[in-house]
Amino acid sequence: MTKPNPPKLLISLRKKERGGIPRGAGADSRHYTSPNPTPSKNNLVLQNRTTLPLKLRDPVDGDWNYIYDSWKRSFKETMPWVPTSNFFRAMGERVEAIKGRKETRFFIACDPEDEGFIFGWGCFGRKNLIHYIFVKQAFRHAQVAGRLVDHATNTNKPIAFTHWTRVCERLNKKHPGALRYEPSKLPKL
To answer: Cα separation of 188 and 176, whole Å?
Structure first.
C-alpha cells in the first residue's frame, strides 16, 4: 500500500532547492520557482501575481457596508493608540462626508466572472487625490492597488493622499516626491 502524496501548499516554506521564494545571502530574487506547478482557480493569485484578471466597476448598494467596514478596520490598525469607540464613530462620519462630495469617485476591483467577489476598492477625489485604497490581504501582491491608481489618477504627476498609511510610507521612501500627505483635502466635520 502506498502513502498518498501530502497536500501541496499555496506558499512554499521550503528553501530554494525545493521551490518557493529564495531567501538568504546570495539568493537571486529575480527567479521564482512555483511549489505547485499546476495552477488552479484557487491559487491563481499566488501562482501568477501580475496577471490576476480583474474588472473595475462602480460600487453597487450591496458594496457600501463592506467599503465602510474595511476602511475603518484597516485604517484603525495604523492608529492603535486611539480609543476604539471614538475612532469608529469619527471615521464613520469622515467616510460619510467624503462619500457625500460630488467629486468623490469609488472603484471596485472584482473578479470578472463574479462581480460580487471583491479584491479591493479605491476612493479618489478630484485630480490626483487618493483618499484610501483597500485590498484584501490575499491579493496585496497582485497589483490590484496599482491598477486602481492607474485607472483613477495621472501617475506622471505627484499623488496626494488624505490617509497616510504604512504602504504610503514605503512608497514614499522608494519614490521620493511622488506622494504628498494632504489631510487638508478632507471635508470639514
So the answer is: 29
- C-beta separation of 99 from 71 below 8 A: no
CB atoms within 10 A of CB 178: 12
What's the whole-number mean pLDDT along residues 96-116?
94
Backbone angles phi, psi at 123, to 5 degrees: -120, 120
State pLDDT tens for residues 131-147.
999 999 999 888 898 88
User: For residue range 154-186, what is the model confidence (pLDDT) as tens digits?
Assistant: 878 888 999 988 888 888 888 888 888 888 888
Per-residue cell: 70: 474595511
Q: Which domains does the chain have, with CATH numbers?
A: 9-44 (no CATH), 55-185 (3.40.630.30)
